[in-house]
Design goal:
This protein is of the alpha/beta class. Helices cover 41% and strands 16% of the residues. The chain folds into two domains: 190 residues, Alpha-Beta Complex (2-enoyl-CoA Hydratase, Chain A, domain 1), CATH 3.90.226.10; 47 residues.
């Protein structure tokens, strides 16, 4: 399956809604009656949509949104399943890895509280915008569990002591504290969320898509390197960027005093 051209046509998405509009793909979590808890069907549908987004050059930005009052309550401990004909892609069943290896802008549009495993999406997306009323928590310790998988992304965006306190006590933080600790980029009034995310997604989609993808891949790779390894690696990436079609078009547009055409 992983070698085939992916398509959204004819697929029956049960736990999510997928909308492609111009250069933006929106994945909406659609189990509001279950607080958008992640079951196997939802995880597979998200991963398939992310794989499709990575495949399609026309998809420049991905938005992860949700229906209902809760963005996502983490894993569905009841293991209830629903019917879906969305294929399973071999080796593509980890949302964190899918997001980090997508190399495209991903915006979490947070219209409600984020709990437990839902932090996998928030911490591994490039952007997270929340409403002012949203709460964030990793309550696993209160159930005798521990957010093992969440830690990988969490400690790449939050200060270590703040992150440790966050998961050790299981207490929620508000949007203001989440922004202070780097968990989200910003928070807005509820009625401003749609417009704010729309403007951000459109701005990102109008930037050099090939360079954006190449740059985000370089960022991800250097993030795991020691400084002395990262610098020469990034130096090589600069040369490759200048050789790319986006750089040539961008420089030509600048010299000719016109807007660049990224579809060339």
């Amino acid at each position: 399956m992983s070698q085939e051209k992916l398509s959204l046509k004819g697929l029956n998405f049960q736990a999510t809604k997928i909308e492609e509009n111009k250069n933006i793909l929106t994945i909406t979590l659609n189990r509001p009656e279950k607080k958008n808890a992640l079951n196997n069907v939802m995880v597979n549908e998200i991963c398939y949509a992310l794989a499709y987004a990575k495949q399609e050059r026309s998809v420049r930005v991905i938005i992860i949104a949700a229906e209902g009052d809760i963005f996502c309550a983490g894993a569905d401990l009841r293991r209830e399943e629903s019917e879906s004909n969305v294929p399973k892609i071999e080796g593509a069943d980890d949302i964190s890895l899918m997001l980090r290896h997508l190399y495209k802008p991903v915006i979490c549009k947070i219209q409600g509280s984020v709990l437990a495993g839902a932090l996998l999406m928030v911490t591994n997306s490039t952007h997270a915008i929340a409403i002012k009323e949203a709460k964030f928590s990793a309550p696993e310790i209160l159930r005798g569990l521990w957010p093992h998988m969440v830690m990988a992304g969490l400690f790449r965006v939050m200060p270590k002591r703040a992150g440790l306190d966050f998961i050790m006590r299981g207490q929620s933080i508000d949007a203001s504290k989440a922004k202070e600790w780097g968990l989200i980029n910003d928070f807005v009034e509820k009625e401003q969320l749609d417009e704010h995310v729309k403007n951000l997604s459109e701005e990102l989609s109008n930037l050099a898509p090939g360079t954006m993808q190449f740059g985000l891949e370089a960022y991800e790779k250097q993030d795991a390197m020691a400084f002395d390894e990262a610098l020469p690696f990034l130096q090589k990436q600069i040369a490759k960027t200048f050789e790319g079609p986006d750089a040539k078009e961008g420089i030509a547009a600048f010299l000719e005093k016109r807007k660049p055409d990224w579809d060339k």
